[in-house]
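Reopening this one. Same input as before:
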Amino acid sequence: MTDRPLTQDEILIAETLLDKVAIFEIFLSEQDYKYEIRDYQAKILLDESRFVSWRAARGVGKTKTIEAEMISLLFRQFHGEVLVAAPNAAHLKPLFDRIINKFYEDPFLKSFIDRCIRAPEYMIRFKTGLVMYGRIAGLSGGVSLLGIHAEYILVEESQCFGPQATNVIQGCINPNGKVRVFGCPNGVRTSYLFKADTSDEFVHYKTSKFEDPTYTEEEDLKKREIFGGENSQSYINQVKGEWGITQFSTFGEKWSECLKDIENYEPIIIEGSEKIEMDQLPLPPLPVETEKCVIAADVGYSPDPTVLGVLAKLKNGVWRLFCKIIMKSVSYTGQEFSQKQVFDYVANFYNISEILIDSGGPGNCLLYT
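Same output, byte for byte:
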């Protein structure tokens, strides 16, 4: 084999394949009724920053932008691993099925494939040495991501990724690896999307539905009617692309000056009455500057769970809920394992001074000291 300079046509082909916008226009624009790339999609694709977050309304082209990233990586990343993570199969399967079909339908793209595995855990190995993984991670806590060390990570619907899955993803990032975190805001302040959207480490993009050139006034009026007006949480999230009020917090915002959750804790869930070792419970440490610690609990009758919360009063007078244990179908006084054992262990672990528990009637409460 002899070396020779590239022809002008070959140079043009190489430049085109290295252009993400061109990749989008060549491989993705025609399949969906002449879908044209939006200006905001082009800006995000061309951003070479290491960490990029995109908070966007519904239906503005986030998934199609991820597809363009996946195809372009074939020509830009010749080794290592790429991870595409989604919260559940409903998000991951359509994305990978479309990409795999696109590769097999196009003779040029197909020529690069060495091996392909479909659901539930997707894998595409290319002849260049690049391996692309598709994993469900949001609701599993990130267990399926263990062992992956990626040069490039794409996170779809990242508003559904809790702290545990978010932390596992950090362990998948190779040194100098790049991360793209895309999603539609849902008010959850512990999600990966919120963390990325408020992190100084990330370059931030925000897109409302009004920036979509196909969005009409008639469609907007319909959404206002369906969602209950422009001030409804759904409209704020899905049309404006804004965070809105805090969701899934234990206490309403009106209590935020005196009573609120600690950031980034995850509930401990115990199911059934099968004996477990108390010292295996992943109890978090006390918050800094804790003055006193109490238990507040709501005892449930099956199928309703019992919820045990541990609150710390800080020196500034604010109470912080930092541990929540949810017990489902756990007996109250079973011989092998019981709710009483959990209460006793937690009380001793944190040196609890008081336990507040409902007495069974609405509005009633008993105080145990």
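So the earlier flakiness isn't reproducible anymore. For the record, The chain has a mean pLDDT of 86.
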